[in-house]
C-alpha cells in the first residue's frame, strides 16, 4: 500500500467519526497549546525581568536590614542605622557614594483627595542616580533640605496624577499623616521593578521620615533605623573585596558575628542569579506539566485507537481477505494515529499561538512566542502519536483473518 | 485437446486445532483436485470440516500437515504476508454476509483489492475503469456510487462478486453466496456465477443447500474431516483411494 493511499484511508476514517476524532485530538491540542503558551509566558517573564534588572542601575551593592535573632529577654538588635551609611562611605575603599532608604506607610491628603497606605520613602540626594529615575518637573531635594529637615516632597508620576489630576503640583501643600509637606518636584514615569511601583510613592528627605514618621525611643542611643543602604562602587575595584569590607565593618559596629548578622549584603549579580534560577525552575515545572498533558493526550489516542481496532475488526478481516498484509494493516492504523496527533498538533499550534497573544493582550504578563517551542510541541505530538499508535496498530496487524471475518 | 491444468491440488491435508490431549482434527487428510474452468460445490453437515477446508483453499489459514498447491505454486508453508499476496493476486472471495466496507461506495469496494496489489506503476484510473466495467457486468452500472446500506442484499452480493473478479483471480471461492438472500435474488446470483463459469472462471462454492449444489458440475461431500464421495452430474463415484489417510490424529 502506498503512503498516499494510507493517508487517504486514514483521513476518511477520521472524517467518518468527526466528533470522536476531535475528542481524541483534544488531549494533543491542549498539550501542544499548553507547551506554547507556557513557554511564551515564561519567556515573556524572563524578558521583563532582564529589562528590569538592567534598569536597576549599575555597580550597586545592596545592604539591607534583616531583623534580628535576639533571644528571649534580649533586646532585638535593630538592624541598620543611619550612621552605618556614613561609616561605609568613610571606612570602605572603592565606595563612590551611599544612598539611604527608610520607608513608612501614611495617609496622604490634598484638597478633597485622600489616599490610604501610601508608601513614603525617606532617602538621600543620591537616590535618583542610583535608582536611575529622573525629575520631570520641579527639582529634587538637596543636602541642605535634608540637614534642615525641610518639609518638602517629590512625587512619583502616578501619585502626582492621583492627587492633583491636571493641576500643577509644584508649590502645593499635601498632608502626609499629620505633617504638611510642600511639593517641589515630580519624577518621570519609571514603572515597577520587582514588587515596587516607583511611580506610586512619595519621596521626602530621610531626616523628615526619622523625625515625623519613624520616631523611636531607642534612636537617641542606637541611631535612626533604616531599611537599606545602596552602595555605589567603583567598577574597577574588586567587588568581593568591597563586600567583605562592608561585612566586617558592620559586624564590628553592630557587635554581632556573621552568623547572627542583622543585615545582609547582596549584589545585582545575586539578584539576577536568583531571578534566573526562579524562572528556570518555573519553566521546567511548566515543561513537565505540558509534557504530562501531551502524554495524557497520547494515552487518549491509544485508547481510542484500541476501541477503533475492536470496532473495525470486521473491516480488518475484509481487507485481509482481499490481500492486505499485516504490514498494510499496521501502516493503516499507525497512519491514522499519526494523522490524529499531527492534525491535533496543528490545531494546538493555532490555539497556542492565538492564546499567547490574547493572554498577553488581556493581562499584565508579557508573552513571547518562540519558534522553538512550536517545533518542540509539534515534534513531541508526532512522536507521542507514533509511540501510542504503534500498540493498537500492531494488535490490528496480528488479527487472524478468519476470526476477524467472523466478528460481529 | 490438451487436459486443462490443475488450479487446486491438495495432498493429504490435515488441520488440527489445539494441542496434545485436547486437540481436535477438523480435517483428516483431504485429497482433491480442481481443474481450470471447473465449477465445484463442497457440501457437508456442520462439523464436517467444510469451513476449515474453505479457509485453507482460500489461503486464510495453513494446513497442519499436507501440501496445498494452487495454480502450480505450493502455498503450504507461506507466511501471513505471502498468503495475503496469494489471496490478492489469485483468489476472489464471495461471502455469505457480502462483507463490503460500510460507508464506502460500490466502486471503492470493488477497487479495494487493488489497494493491496504491490505493483510498481499501477494506474488508479485504469483500476477505476476496470471496476466500472465489472459493476456493469453484474448489472450495477448505474449504482457505482451507492453505499452498501443503499443497496439490496442481492445488489450487495453482486458488488462482492465484482470485487472478487477485479484482480482476474485463477479461483473464485464462494461461501454460501445465496445464504442470506431470498430465492429470487439467490437465483440472480447463481445466474451470474453460471455466466462467469461459462466464460471460463474456476469456482469453488461451499453450500449446505443441495438445490444450489446441483447447479455445479460436481459436488464434493465431506463428512467428519474426510472426502466422503464426489457426485458428478448426478452420478455417484465412491472415493476409494487414499484410504490410508483415514487415520485418527492423537
- The arrangement of helices and strands of chain B along the chain is EEEHEEHEHHHEHEHEEE
Number of strands of chain B: 11
Characterize the overall form of chain A: elongated
Mean pLDDT of chain B: 88
Derived from helix and strand composition plus strand pairing, the structural class of chain A reads alpha+beta
Task: Describe what you observe in this structure.
The complex is a heterodimer of chains A (408) and B (250). Helices cover 56% and strands 18% of the residues of chain A. Chain A contains 14 helices and twelve strands. The two termini of chain A are 27 Å apart. Residues 69-76 of chain A have low confidence and may be disordered. Chain B has 250 residues and is α/β, with parallel strands linked by helices. Chain B has seven helices and eleven strands. In chain B, the strands form two sheets. In chain B, strands 6-7-8-3-9-10-11 form a seven-stranded mixed β-sheet. Residues 235-250 of chain B have low confidence and may be disordered. At the A-B interface, helix 1, helix 11, helix 12 and helix 14 of A face helix 2 and helix 3 of B.
